[in-house]
Amino acid sequence: MRLLHTSDWHLGRSFHRVSMLDAQAAFLGHLAATVRERDVDAVVVSGDVYDRAVPPLAAVELFDDALHRLAGLGVPTVMISGNHDSARRLGVGAGLIDRAGIHLRTEPAACATPVVLADAHGDVAFYGLPYLEPALVKDAFGVEKAGHEQVLAAAMDRVRADLATRPRSTRSVVLAHAFVTGGEASDSERDITVGGVAAVPAGVFDGVDYAALGHLHGCQTITERVRYSGSPLPYSFSEAAHRKSVWIVDLDADGSVTAERVDCPVPRPLARLRGALQDLLADPALDPHREAWVEATLTDPVRPADPMARLTERFPHTLSLVFDPERAPDDPDVSYARRLAGRDDQQIAEDFVAHVRGAGPDAHERDVLRAAFDAARLEELDDLGESAHEVTR
């Protein structure tokens, strides 16, 4: 069976205030063309279909068009909700849409109820694990600790239990939206840290033939059977080195996997330029970046006059301007941003406590800080009406 694995469309998202709707529409057209030209048997979409819980109308229209195209091709599609999606909104009408071959899996309680498709070699069971917010699903999954590893492991236990009841020849595919250990993050994924830990080990997916992951925006291979497709478009300059693509995965009769990347159309390349303003304006080696979306980091010791206006004369698509003056490491004017670089909210808070009190927090105080950050992050969930009862109903 040939699968197309994609994720993290983020329909409705912009790039530094530049609308990406046309680029997203171009990708969805490319997706349908690839499905047709490469004789794809099933499409899997591993979450973050939308960029936010209540997407703009134009994004909903894009999604509707994509569903009609896929249904018109007669190719089954299995799709889960991600941490940016509202699971309940995305899942509205799932029962009816299911009849058109579009299988929306947004309810955690149904994670062990697969979509079963068949090819010449037998059945393939597709298990959709939507994004599992630990605090909302831990009781339903019977785990004591509200952590990503615990709830995802519990969900996979249910998947393996169901798979064990099926014929031994049944092959299996799991869709999941999570941060798996070994994956490389970028600046454009929303933080899903709980209790100071976001990552789960790849071994949690043992026992299935292929795990189609979403959440991280870079296409990457964790193991031969555990892969991220990445986002089809860039959503931050940290993705400048990414090659945007989808996976074409061939699942053989014995469950062995071969995979090939198919590039996605990119509206403009990204370029991260660094140096003194005059050097950026004069260096002929930078000519290839004239039509790129540009992030310029200026290292001038003194902020130059009208830097953005001067940069856009040479690089008309400059979108981001960063000041990072070159100074000695012990210079008291070293930027606050540089001092915080690479630190998460928990570390910053602990450093602040140490700064104002003269001693860092003890173990109990660290737990209190962590609980406070977890609670604040939960309040930012896109659909606050999703109580644990509603999610598992």
What do you see in this structure?
The protein has 393 residues and is α/β, with parallel strands linked by helices. It folds into 3 domains: 2-267, Purple Acid Phosphatase, chain A, domain 2 (4-Layer Sandwich), CATH 3.60.21; 270-326, no CATH class; 345-391, no CATH class. It is 31% helix and 23% strand. It is built from 12 helices and 19 strands. It has helices at 21-37, 57-73, 87-90, 94-98, 134-141, 148-164, 277-282, 307-314, 336-340, 345-357, 363-379, 388-392; strands spanning 2-6, 14-15, 18-19, 42-46, 77-80, 102-105, 115-119, 122-129, 171-177, 179-180, 199-200, 210-214, 220-223, 226-228, 245-251, 257-263, 270-275, 293-298, 318-323. The strands form 5 sheets. Strands 6-5-4-1-15-16 form a 6-stranded mixed beta sheet. A hairpin with a 5-residue loop joins strand 15 and strand 16.
List the helices and strands and how they pair.
Layout: E1 2-6, E2 14-15, E3 18-19, H1 21-37, E4 42-46, H2 57-73, E5 77-80, H3 87-90, H4 94-98, E6 102-105, E7 115-119, E8 122-129, H5 134-141, H6 148-164, E9 171-177, E10 179-180, E11 199-200, E12 210-214, E13 220-223, E14 226-228, E15 245-251, E16 257-263, E17 270-275, H7 277-282, E18 293-298, H8 307-314, E19 318-323, H9 336-340, H10 345-357, H11 363-379, H12 388-392
Parallel strand pairs: 1-4, 4-5, 5-6, 8-9, 9-12, 10-11, 12-14, 17-18, 18-19
Antiparallel strand pairs: 1-15, 2-3, 7-8, 13-14, 15-16
Helix pairs in contact: 1-2, 5-6, 10-11
